[in-house]
Structures are given as C-alpha cells and as structure tokens.
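Schema walk-through. Below, the input block comes first and the output block second. Nothing else is stored per chain. Lengths vary across the set, and this one has 238 residues.
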Amino acid sequence: MPRNLISLVVVVALVSTSTLFAQSPQQRRQQQARQQQMQEQMRAMAENQPQLPSDPQLLSLHKEFIAKTEKLAMEYERKKEFDKAREAYESLVRLVPKYSKAEEGLNRILTNQAIQDRKLTDVQANQLWQDSGVTLQEGMPVHMEVKGTWKVVYETGPKGIEIPEKLRPRDSRIKLGTLIGVIANSPADLTEAKPFVIEESKDFTAPKTGRLYLRMFDVDPSDNEGKMYVLIQSTFRQ
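--- output ---
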C-alpha cells in the first residue's frame, strides 16, 4: 500500500475514534494527575541524590555499574518491559547526581506510563467471548466508554427459557443483554472467572494482568442482533 494512502487510513481511523468518543473532563483530570505525579517523582529523586565517591577505585566501580545498568535499562525498554526499565533507570537516578541519560530514560518511561493507550473495538451481540485486542496491566487505571445498541432475540414456548444454574451470573446487576467483561489468561478463565459489568462510562483498576474479553450475557447469543462499540483507555501490556 502506498505510504500516502497508509497515512490517510491512519488519519481517518483516528478522526473516527475521536468523533465517536470525545475525551471527558474526568479523563483529562486523570491524565493531568498522572503527569503531576510523574513530575513530583522526578523532583523527589533529584533532591535525594548522593554525591559521587572521591576514591578512584570506588568511582571506577560506580562507572562500571552505571554502564551495565544503563545498557540493561535500554534493553528492557527495547523489549517494552517498561516496569523493569523504570526500576533500572530509577537506580541510576538515585545513585548518580544529574546523570542526564538516566533522567531522560526515566522520563520516557514515566511519560509512557502516564499516556493512555487507546483501543476501539466492537462487540457483536451474536457471539460468545470476544478478544478486545488489549492486555491490561495489574494496578493500572482503566477507563471504558460504550456506544451502540443491540437486541436480545428469543423464540420460546409458553414456559419461556430457564437459565441453567451453571450459567446464572453471581452479580445481580448482570441481566440478559448486559455487556460483560472478564480478564483472562487461559481458556478456563473464560468459564471460571467472575465477569464484571461494562457500563456506559466505567473506571476501574485492573485487578490482574491479562487479556480483556467482552460479550453480551445470554444463554445462546447466536440469534441476537447488533453490536456495541467499546473504547478502552489504559496503559496496555505490550
């Protein structure tokens, strides 16, 4: 595909997402709070930095540690293991006063963690668990927005349809047609993990690291109609 056409496709996708889901005041406040927290962390580290040793041999050991730790941090960053990269850069910042490479590296990591990734996905009414395409990180804030409508279709006799006991939700808020989610790391999690309700505007902290799956709650979704559009914002695990 020509480069200018690829660029046009990307721009159209971004505009479509922004039009469907505008950033709310609450989201802006959350992002500002994360940026302020990042700045405070950098200031605290700068104020508590020790002096380098004057002994030549000890200074040589420091330099060796710095070189190896910086190399390790860059390797973690290249692999997108940002938590490990952050820990390595923080060790350098604490040890070496005003070491620009370490400060720049830590700033990159903190900025990356502060900036929310965005993923727009659609959830079909007539399918079972559907992969959202994102892996949430334990302890990271998650914001979700939902747009759309769908229809629960049933054809029954006069007795109706009874939900099998093993499929009855433990959360009383879950009804037929409710959009639900689950964080899973194995196929077994999709049947054993406790699902949670996805509301029109939902904020929560990811309880564990894992893939986010979504679906309509229904005994047999195959005859349902419609879909939901779900915008997921967080710092995703790469």
